Amino acid sequence: MFDTLSKWRQRRLLERSAIPDDLWDEAVGLLPFLALYTDDELRSLRDKVVLFLDAKAIVGARGHVVTPLQRVVIAIEACVLVLHLDLALYDGFENVIVYPGEFVPDWEWEDEAGVVHRNDGPLAGEAMPGGPVVLSWPDVEASADWDEAGMNLVIHEFAHKIDMRGGEASGCPPLPMSMAPDVWKATLASAYDAFCARVDRDEPTEVDPYAAESPAEFFAVLSEVFFADPLLLRHEYPEVYAQMALFFRQDPALRATQLGFSYEPQD
Ligand SMILES: [Zn+2]
Is 203 exposed, middle or buried (0-12, 13-18, 19+ CB in 10 A)? Predict the structure, then answer.
């Protein structure tokens, strides 16, 4: 439990379980979007990663061996979302399970109408309420470079995890007292409707059309964009961007501008 971890224990843990510099540098080098973070932020991200790795087991499945580099890469991407939030948002589950490729879940679930569903297609990642985050390593690796992939699997699944703090993923995670749920819901819903209309008209979109799948997927995909390509999100959906900046307590687009980046439409 992160919230019950005393400051003393935290300090001890940070000293004892420090990540070696070369391992940290190699992991950061695989994640070019971290160029948007200041040195201070990277230092505090590194501390969060140590605490995250102490609390979670990142385990291989179906013969996959999780290397130290893979653990750190996954932990960094998970911790980017909570860099300015409490790690306790990730309480309530123990494991991140890593497969050597896409996997077919063999569980069934019942929806609110009592209909039993079963996954039949292979998945690259999955987050379950109260359960583990499941990832395919090749998909984590392929989506580490946003400019190449236009997606980030780990940020996506951990955004679902945060959303699921309120139960089933709905696109509306539990908000801090300082934020108005009505404003969040109305802002996200109007952007979602506009986005779905564009996808229905087969218009090209800068954001992955998978976001039209449901409000929960919209939130998870837009969280990827918020962290990995914030200038794009602020350009496409400024009001959603503003809500997310309040929620995640960071303004990566502002940092990007200060660092000299500017929004460039794709061809
Ligand atoms: Zn999803």
Answer: exposed
The model's pLDDT over 104-143, given as tens digits with 9 standing for 90+, comes to 877 666 666 776 666 667 889 999 888 899 999 999 999 9
Residue 258 CA, ligand 1 centroid: distance in Å: 31
Question: For residue 5, how far is its CA from the centre of ligand 1 (angstroms)?
Answer: 31
What is the C-alpha separation between 17 and 47, in angstroms, rounded? 10
pLDDT tens digit sequence for 39-77: 999 999 999 999 999 999 999 999 999 999 999 999 999
- Closest by CA to 90, choosing from 98, 99, 81, is 81
Cα-to-centroid distance, 157 and ligand 1 (Å): 6
Instruction: Tally the C-alpha atoms within 13 A of residue 187's C-alpha that lie toward its C-beta.
Output: 17
State if pTM tops 0.85: yes
162: Cα within 13 Å, side-chain hemisphere: 26
- Cα-Cα-Cα-Cα dihedral sign, residues 73, 77, 80, 85: negative
Query: Which pLDDT score, from 0 to 100, does residue 119 have?
Result: 66
The three-state secondary structure class of 61 is coil
C-alpha torsion sign, points 199, 201, 202, 206: negative
Q: What pLDDT shows up at residue 109?
A: 62
Question: How far apart are alpha carbons 234 and 215 in whole angstroms?
Answer: 19
- Measure 200 CA to ligand 1 centroid, in angstroms: 19
Residue 118: the pLDDT is 67
Positions of E strands within the chain: 57-60, 95-99, 108-110, 116-118, 125-127, 133-136
Q: Collapse the DSSP code of 195 into the 3-class scheme (helix H, G, I; strand E, B; otherwise coil) and give the result.
A: helix
β-pair type (125-127, 133-136): antiparallel
